[in-house]
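Data deposition worksheet. Section B asks for the primary sequence of the deposited chain exactly as it was used as input, without tags or linkers unless they were present during the calculation. Section C holds the resulting structure in token form. Section D is free text for depositor observations; keep each observation to a single sentence. Incomplete worksheets are returned to the depositor.
Section A, Depositor: J.P.
Section B:
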Amino acid sequence: MKNKVKKCEGKLGILLPGLGAVATTMITGVYAVRKGIGLPIGSYTQIGNIRLGKRTENRNPKVKDFVPLASLDEIVFGGWDIFEDNAYEAASNAGVIDQQLLDKLKPELSAILPMKAVFDKKFVHNLDGKNVKSALTKMDLANALIRDMEEFRVKNACSRLVMVWCASTEIYLEVSDVHQSLEAFEDGLRCNHPQIAPSMIYAYAAIKSGIPFANGAPNLSCDFPAMVELAGKTRTPIGGKDFKTGQTLMKTIIAPGLKARNIGVDGWFSTNILGNRDGEVLDDPESFKTKEVSKLGSLSNIFEPELNPDLYSDIYHKIRINYYPPRGDNKESWDNIDIFGWLGYKMQIKINFLCRDSILAAPIVLDLALLIDLAKRTGMSGIQEWLSFFFKSPQSAPGLVPIHDLFRQLMKLENTLRHLQGESLITHLGLDYYEK
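Section C:
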């Protein structure tokens, strides 16, 4: 039975805290696609296909033709940043997109001006900027963001808004008493509680306003009881965290293959160099710890050492990130994987991934914005586990272990879309042939 999905009527406003490399790369790409001077490569919603029904039916429509998603022509962009650069200037400074392409889109990009950001240097030590809001309390800051969003909606005649966090990684925080209930959190906002970070204020403002929120960084932003409670009250979809891009993407592709073949793993050493703003931020040990915790969780979840102690109980997993300015946004990662096979004989896998971090992240931002808007129009709320496909450290329902295996995540994503459109779920059992 087909679920009721509200039509995409009017414009969709995509609001982005952090108009840096990732956000401006995504925005530039959307404008380029609109003008027919670029392709949305890497975007599941734009060029991905989804199989429907039996293989003999040969039904494999584009995802964007199967589910009612906002078209790229219906999107309006806005955001906040601690720097005053417009999107054209920010994209030029980031150095991800060729200047020749940026110049072709200069009028559109230059029109996107950052709103004053909620920022506190205590949570991101290695950045500082002047385009920052000031207020007596963190609740005042949240209300200022709520006003920003409403003014943006009215000014741009948007029928709907979503928010995707694209700003920097904050210092590592764990859930404390102030995060345990909505009442405690709102008291903390009014009292300027030191454990409430800027990303939480953005998440609160969005969810309080019924605006879907997706967290693209490893920050503690919407993945704690108070925010889940608020999302339930306002019937708002939330998801996170940390865009699954370079090295972790490789891990969630390769590790499931090793496990499927029952190949043992002794150790997995990962190191990265990058020189963009993200690298500068992660050069601070406290911000790095936030990223490290996000990246470390995938292997133990995929390998399930408690079920396969002979193969995975003693894995030594180490991660390093080094700031190297000459590389810019072109991150390079190395992985050394020590494995063992039949009778315990040792082998190795070496991976050298020269990737462009923002190029990999940009389509994820777009996909999350479109799909979390779909969730809102379908009446879905709270944690959207079916969007785990896009995250390094997926948020899951309380008491449930998140899924990190990329292929299991994709199956969950696609079966959710099939369910929403009243199509049969696909399990790949292939029983029909044998039952004839």
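Section D:
The mean pLDDT is 93.
The first strand starts at residue 11 and ends at 17.
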